[in-house]
Specification:
alpha/beta, Rossmann fold, 4-stranded parallel sheet, 9 helices
């Protein structure tokens, strides 16, 4: 089965995407062709969207799925005229909240993502800079300022996880790759030892590691099954010896890896 899906918003479309993707993930046997249409903030743009959706419905012979987050009732009403199965996220949830809180919503476009003093924008940017400056063990002198330090073999997901922790939660995350040379003494590298309480390990299935490394350095020792198997086994043995918490990243998205780390390490989110 194949269905076309549209995420439509008068802002970035991130909320519509996140909500819709979470629901669609429950239907493994359906192939979804996704399209995001952000900044639909005028009646003219809304009418163009309706034409696109109607053409898709006529071509496929089945109505597309639409997830929308549009505040303006006039624009939302136009989009709802499209030949689609419509999920108006704001209409679904704002009404009951308005009734419960006995207040009218402000109907302000882009309210959640507005840059102001209340959403700790500067903390988010500082955390991203910290993750970039302390990536891949390039610098270790600022580890005292880190909220967490991720360790593991090269290409197991440390960098994207650090950046996600920074961007989404304002967490200052550094990462350090455990190399073959580091394992010669079978103990934590010297730069990590003073910060043992901040360490969290990432591991990965060796075959998945082979595939990832082969994209970067095909037919190399670095990407060979034997090398990947050896590195993963040694790092897992070190993590067990040092009693450092770890998770296997093989089947998790970066979002899941990050939130599991927060939960298991007990890190406080700077952005909520």
């Amino acid at each position: 089965m194949r269905r076309d899906v549209f995420f439509i918003s008068d802002g970035t479309g991130i909320t519509a995407e996140s909500f819709g993707q979470s629901l669609l993930a429950q239907f493994d046997h359906v192939e979804f062709a996704r399209q995001t249409l952000p900044y639909i903030d005028t009646p003219e743009k809304a009418s163009e969207v309706v034409a696109i959706i109607d053409q898709c419905a006529a071509r496929q012979g089945i109505p597309p799925l639409v997830f929308s987050t549009i505040i303006d009732e006039t624009i939302a009403g136009i989009v709802c005229q499209a030949s689609a199965r419509h999920q108006d996220i704001f209409a679904t949830f704002l009404g009951p909240l308005e009734e419960e809180l006995h207040l009218h919503p402000t109907h302000s476009i882009g309210k959640k993502r507005k840059i102001d003093a209340n959403n700790h924008y500067s903390e988010r940017i500082d955390a991203v800079h910290f993750a970039l400056d302390n990536d891949d063990g390039a610098r270790t002198r600022h580890y005292d300022k880190a909220d967490i330090i991720l360790i593991g073999v090269s290409r197991c997901g440390k960098t994207p996880t650090c950046l996600y922790l920074a961007l989404q939660f304002g967490i200052r995350a550094a990462n350090y790759p455990i190399t073959e040379e580091d394992m010669e003494d079978f103990r934590l590298p010297a730069p990590l030892q003073p910060h043992r309480h901040k360490l969290f390990g990432l591991t990965i299935d060796p075959q998945r590691l082979v595939a990832i490394r082969s994209e970067r350095r095909p037919n190399s020792r670095y990407a060979s099954p034997r090398q990947c198997q050896m590195e993963v086994a040694e790092v897992e043995r070190l993590l067990a010896k040092e009693r450092i918490s770890c998770i296997n990243t093989t089947r998790f998205s970066v979002e899941e890896i990050a939130t599991r780390i927060i939960a298991e390490a007990g890190i406080a989110r700077r952005l909520k």
